[in-house]
Amino acid sequence: MIYKLPQQKLLRWIALFLIGTFLQFLFYIPTPVLSQNSNSCSNITTPLTSEEQTYARAAWQYFVKNYQPATGFTNSTGGYPSGTLWDMGNYLMALNAARWLNLTDQADFDSRLKKFLTTLNSLKLFEDALPNKVYNAATAQMVDYGNNPLEQGIGWSALDVGRILAAFDVIRTCHPQYNEWLKGIVAKWQVARSLKDGQLFGATVLPDKKTLLVQEGRLGYEEYGARGYQLWGFSAPKAIALEPFKLVEINGVQIPVDSRDFQSTNANNYVVSESYILDGIEFGLQGELADFAARVLDVQKRRFDTTGQLTAVTEDNIDQAPYFLYNTVYANGANWATITDANQPYPQFRSISTKAAFGWRYLFPENAYAQKVFDAVKDLRSPDDSGYYAGIYEESKQPNKALTGNTNGLILEILYYKARGNHPLIASTSASVSSSKPSENASSATPANLPNSTGNPSENASSATPANQPNSTVKTPIATPADTSKPIEVTVAPIPAVDSPQPSSNLKLDRPLTPVERRYAEAAWRYFQANYHSKSGLIDDRSDFKGATLWGLGDYLAALHAARSLDIITPKEFDQRTRHLLGALTKLPLFEKELPGRGYDTRSLQPVDYGGNPVPEGNGWSALDLGRMLAALYNLKTCHPEYTAAVDKIVLDWSYLRVVREGILSSATVSKEQEGQILTRINPETRLGYEEYAARAFQLWGFNLDRSAVGGEYQTASVEGLKVPIQRHRTDTNSKNQYTVSNPFVLYALEFGLDPKMRSLFEPIFQAQAERYRRTGILTASATTLIDHKPYTVHSTITGKSEPWVALADNGQIVPKGRLVSTAVAFAYHALLPENKYSQELLQGTTDLYNPLAGFYEGFYETTGKTAIGFTSSTNSMILQSLLYKVMNQQPLIRPISNMKSPWWQEVSKGNSGRGLPNIARQQTKLISDSSGNYWVSGSEKAPLVTGTKLTE
User: Fold this and answer.
1) Calpha distance 377→6 (Å, rounded)
2) What percent of the chain has pLDDT over 90?
3) CA-CA distances (angstroms) from residue 324 to 145, 342, 851?
4) Does residue 131 have a cis peptide bond before it, meaning omega lies within 30 degrees of 0?
């Protein structure tokens, strides 16, 4: 009888072994593939700079000083002999990086790795299945998290298993002589016990000593861990998929969050930086994960923009109780939560993470914010050469002096990634991520995924409806994560160097900028530095969206001219950027081989809709956008004639047959019929102010647009006792203008001056806003602006939908308390009317609304005075143009051209081009001067003494 219990125990262990072996074969797919060849591991294509070598040496010193020679392991934190399987994976990645970065030689590498693998192979496993969650690094004993020895152990972590499997893959690839050894270790482990129903399962020990399997992993880490499993042939399809997740709006960015929160599962659904950084440097960010990573970085930048607090959040050890915290973007229903694993809050210990800052800096090397937060921690090294500290506490501004293998290992891994030319360490495509769209699709668009993102008229739902009928409806394209996979970035060559770059000699500046004005100009130019794509030469229309319209690129060209004229940038930078932009314009795919389309991805140059979704067939063109670009290109030729040939070549490649018809501007839209047929519709433009602006720009190039140019009869509405124009009377279309805002009128005034016809529209628009301020005390600068939450774009109208002072969304719905005071319009009104008391009030209310690293904000809310978070090219371009207008003694920014023998005019003179060029080689507008100032008028007008337009109520 005394042998009965031992016999039962023996039989039970035999049964468990047989079951585990069976499961191993059940889940194992015997086709592991080495993810890269070993030769590529030593291929250092971008050697570290001397400064980066200092970073690497400092990080490696952590592992030198925390090495345990008896086991070959390293301490997880400085001087504390404990370590998890995740920490062991960190060390293997650091050791590999140190070898190829020549921080250690082959003999030392081999000595360290052999000792490590020998100990690892002999570890006591939890239930003889998988490594325990934590071991004493000095003795290799199973312990708890307090480093107390435990015979049974405390379970295993599937995520930690995934981490070390990824590290094993790098070692066997870069050092194939260890492949069989590693295969033997993996074969010894019962990896399949950590897989169930396509998911990762960890094991924990209950108070009664029973083992409980629990699902492990939340969005980010779950996918990363499953990728490690997949490298060794173990399939976890549900874990590697992104579901279940939802999108939560934080600081104006839609952040992907795991739907399984602490309240429902007793596990945290934190969003942190590290999982995305690891995925990027090891596997290469692909598909939805690339989009998610960009969002997670962007929201941290947005927090900095709003609060001035540098932000780089992830989990970290800290140098005081409770010793380990999750600094998150979001966790369990709370934004910017700092919590323990038990969801206890410690906001006073939120910190800027060193490893997160390093990761974002090298994953996104052109991101200005990533560089800024990196600069704050790059020298945060221990003075006794023990490695990098974990970070900086936000509240106290003091270093978090915790020294960890996680921080220093990740820094080494990141620097090795950089040295390989930003090539992922595990270049396998086998560990792909698949996803269906989240159930919250209807609300999943980021601010950039919605139309009208910059005040660009072509982006309004009301401006380009199919057939442009008043009752037609356009559904806004919504970009879901599946729609936003990272495109292939193209490198665009600038046009060849021009013969003799010249200064803006045609511009007569009345005075230099004041120091305060220069500060404003430099702040506005920051937008174009922060959102510049060095490969394509393009600028994003808005900071949260990798896309551009032709209107936005016209803004950029106008900003370039203003910045050079104001001496904000050097002649060399102006020339380089201008030639690069012109080179990109030659590469944009033309819609139906006629004209540039409505939107382009600024990385790939491929057509996209206003939601950022690829549309290979294109989505039409906007005559208004073309007008904006034509005005900017004309002025480039005038003030910088050395670019004339290049500019004319671009515009001569376009066809104008359908955009200019019978004196009217028309735009193209695309619709898809039920049977799948794609149809193009051409309809007149009717956007009040924008039509007049674009028509004047086309006239500069000789096009006859007498029916779209300012003039004729305008219908008005009474606002504050003034006759404010709402639309022009016309019989050629049933389309209606939906609202009146300031943007197009102030832009027209800055560039073309206020001719009597335009003045009769401009003055009541301005006076109505001044009168509202006098009556209510509410500062008013009505414009189309971006905001950081739904509906993401607001038209703060003077009149809209037959109501004064209403804020409208793109779909025409009223936005309660949504009105903004526009920064750009305030600057423009002050430039145009510097002596007016109300314009002075406007300027005082908006001049400090800028971020010195990102540009001017869109404005502030009328009701609360809070800043509207968001940055656009239109706002910052208009501010630069307004400042230039001031120092030009209020002369129109568009200057007359003198060279009528350029390639454009020569082609026009030939006639019968087949491309819709003008009929005669003569501009249809001219710059004149009278007692009221200088302004452009239509060429048919023989004298400046025009009585104005006819206004009717």
Assistant:
1) 58
2) 69
3) 12, 11, 33
4) no
> Cα Rg for the chain, rounded, in angstroms?
32
Residue carrying structure tokens 């023990």: 386
Whether the full predicted model's pTM is greater than 0.85, yes or no, is no
pLDDT range class, residue 447, cuts 50, 70, 90: very low
Name the helix (H) or strand (E) containing 264: helix 262-265
Residues 6+ apart with CB under 8 A from 477: 449, 451, 609, 610, 611, 612, 613
pLDDT of residue 469 exceeding 90, the answer is no
- Angle, helix 873-887 to helix 743-752, in steps of 10 degrees: 40
Length of the chain: 953
Whether residue 400 contacts residue 355, with contact meaning beta carbons closer than 8 Å, is answered with no
Question: Which token pair is 368?
Answer: 């200005």
Relative to beta strand 850-851, strand 855-856 is antiparallel
608 pLDDT above the threshold of 90: yes
Percent of the chain with pLDDT over 70: 87
Q: How many Cβ atoms are within 10 Å of 109's Cβ, its own excluded?
A: 17
pLDDT class of 502 with cuts at 50, 70, 90: low
Question: Which of 64-70's residues contact partners 24+ apart within 8 Å by CB, and which partners?
Answer: 65/385, 65/386, 65/387, 66/405, 67/112, 68/137, 68/138, 69/115, 70/138, 70/139
What gap in Å lies between CA 703 and CA 717, rounded to an integer? 32
Kindly tell me if the per-residue pLDDT of 449 is higher than 50. Answer: no
Q: One-letter amino acid identity for 416?
A: Y
pLDDT tens digits, 764-815: 999 999 999 999 999 999 999 987 778 888 999 999 989 999 999 988 899 9
**DSSP output for 10-77:** HHHHHHHHHHHHHHHHHHB-S----SS-HHHHT--SSPPPHHHHHHHHHHHHHHHHTB-TTTS-B-SB
Query: What is the residue whose two structure tokens read 């937060």?
Result: 373
E strand spans, 566-712: 590-591, 595-596, 600-601, 660-661, 664-672, 678-684
Cβ count within 10 A of residue 698: 26
Task: Report the amino acid identity of residue 106.
Answer: Q
Give me the residue label for tokens 């004729």: 712
Q: Which one, of 277, 239, 95, 45, lies nearest residue 159 by Cα? A: 239
Structure-block tokens of residue 733: 């279309």
Question: How many alpha carbons lie under 13 Å from residue 74 in its C-beta half-sphere?
Answer: 29
Rounded to the nearest angstrom, the gap between the alpha carbon of residue 855 and the centroid of all alpha carbons in its chain is 15
